[in-house]
Amino acid sequence: MRPLMTRSIYRITGGDRLSFLQGLITNDIAKLENGLVYAAMLTPQGKYLADFFLVPDAKAVLLDVDASIAAGLAQKLNMYKLRADVAIEETDLKVKRGTGPTPEVAFADPRHSALGWRLYGSENGDDGTDFDALRVQHCVPATGVELTPDTFILEAGFERLNGVDFRKGCYVGQEVTARMKHKTELRKGLTRVDVTGHAPVGTAITSNGKAAGTLYSQADGQGIAYLRFDRAGEAMNADGATVTYPASDPK
């Protein structure tokens, strides 16, 4: 049985709520007009602090975040608000998600069309979809698994996942992120790999005896790995499992 999804939902209100968020998040708050916004907060050095969904809610914005990092994120937001007209409070709302027929008031997951919808209300859980398998198939990182304090979001695929906007203006960590986008070629990053066998999440990958990366989530013979692309190749090893890059097309 898959573990129950645990999310915390905060309500952000106040006349400055939109400008406040705009100066902190990697995406453009104006996209709330079209539905959910997936975004992150970064350190000044451009590294990952938290990822979350922002949800339009009348004269408020809901923030949907993994429960394991919720308290730390709320503390950070309250630290930044200073004298802004912003209030942040935790709600008792829950999230239900699925890939079947979309409920009338649900929102499409903006990261990938295969991830279906998210519904905010009194129910938790999902419709039976194996979301971990979908994540692996489409290389979608998870909070606390592939996304850690050492993560640079472009290496984690945030541009492909609609989690960053390069035209929105300044936010904390923006300079490093923009420099990675415009001045360098990514030499490391998350990618889908084929996996024969199984290895624990976080297992080191080696290629010809050299460190090549780390293997994370796995499902249906594939996995998400963080690789050094200059060392990646066929028949890499991860604690007895064989890791192959590039991956074959998902079945």
Overall number of structural domains: 2
Percent of residues in helices: 10-25%
Structural class designation: alpha+beta
Rounded to the nearest angstrom, the distance between the terminal CA atoms is: 23 Å
Which residues sit in consecutive blocks of at least 5 with pLDDT less than 50? none
- Topology, number of strands: 15
Order of helices and strands, N to C? EHEEEHEEEEEHHEEEEEE
CATH superfamily of the largest domain: Probable tRNA modification gtpase trme, domain 1
As laid out across the biggest beta sheet, the strand order is: 11-12-13-10-15-14
Q: Summarize the biggest pleated sheet.
A: 6 strands, antiparallel
The level-1 CATH class of the largest domain: Alpha Beta
**Helix count, per DSSP?**
4
Specify the overall morphology.
Answer: globular
Rg over CA atoms: 19 Å
What is the residue-mean pLDDT, rounded to a whole number?
95
Strand content: 25-35%
Level-2 CATH architecture of the largest domain = 2-Layer Sandwich
CATH topology of the largest domain: Gyrase A, domain 2
Structural account:
The chain is α+β, with helices and mostly antiparallel strands and 251 residues long. The protein folds into 2 domains: 177 residues, Probable tRNA modification gtpase trme, domain 1 (Gyrase A, domain 2); 57 residues, no CATH class. The chain is built from 4 helices and 15 strands. The strands form 3 sheets. It has a 6-stranded antiparallel β-sheet with strand order 11-12-13-10-15-14. It has a 5-stranded antiparallel β-sheet with strand order 2-3-4-1-5, with helices on one face. Strands 7-8-6-9 form a 4-stranded mixed β-sheet, with no helix packed on it. Strand 3 and strand 4 form a beta hairpin. The longest helix is centred in the N-terminal third of the chain and has 15 residues. The mean pLDDT is 95.
